[in-house]
Amino acid sequence: MTRRDIVTSLLAMGTAAAFAEPAEAAGRSVIDYDSRVALQRLRALDPGTRALAARAIAILMFPNIIKGGFIVAGQYGEGALMQHGKTTGYFSIAAGSLGLQAGGEAFSYALLFFRRSALDYLNRNNGWTIGTGPNIVVLDTGGAASVTNLTVTQDVVAIPFGLKGLMAGINLEGSKITRITPEA
User: Fold this and answer.
1) Tens of pLDDT, residues 126-172
2) How far is it, in rounded angstroms, from Cα 23 to Cα 14?
3) Is beta strand 156-166 parallel, antiparallel or unpaired with respect to 86-113?
4) Are 83 and 123 in contact (CB under 8 A)?
5) Under 8 Å between Cβ of 119 and 89
6) Which residues contact 133 (CB under 8 A, 6 or more apart)?
7) What are 128's strand-pairing partners?
8) Which of 129, 122, 121, 96 is nearest to 20 (CA)?
């Protein structure tokens, strides 16, 4: 077996793992509970984040995204779309990557929707691949504190938080968000 065969095999396995449906997806009540707890954690981060969340017309909360790999990495998580305090849909997020990387991590992601057109795009297409469709900006929690009502011009603001583990970089670009139907 050549080095090229090994790399090709690792790439194929990593890509399959990144986009495979988990063997036992969480039920609606678990996703709802975890998403609400994550939303409370997001609001508690700082006043700027709390203000952004209050202005959003909807929040797609991914409370626990797991990422791991060696050279080939994958990530997956499930979350709830919340509007006016109620869950209006369920989505998964998945991505794969290839490069100099090793390790594993877990984190939360909040996608705050500020434009009806972006929310309609998500619902009409049953999801989307980040980097296509609505304009999105990723903020760290410290950056959220300096954002005012006048400076938010994007359709969607993404805020990663609660990082645990060791792996370089959190990348949202190219992640595929897909509508799911979890069991009750």
Assistant:
1) 888 877 778 778 776 555 545 554 446 789 999 999 988 876 555 55
2) 16
3) antiparallel
4) no
5) no
6) 118, 121, 125
7) 177
8) 96
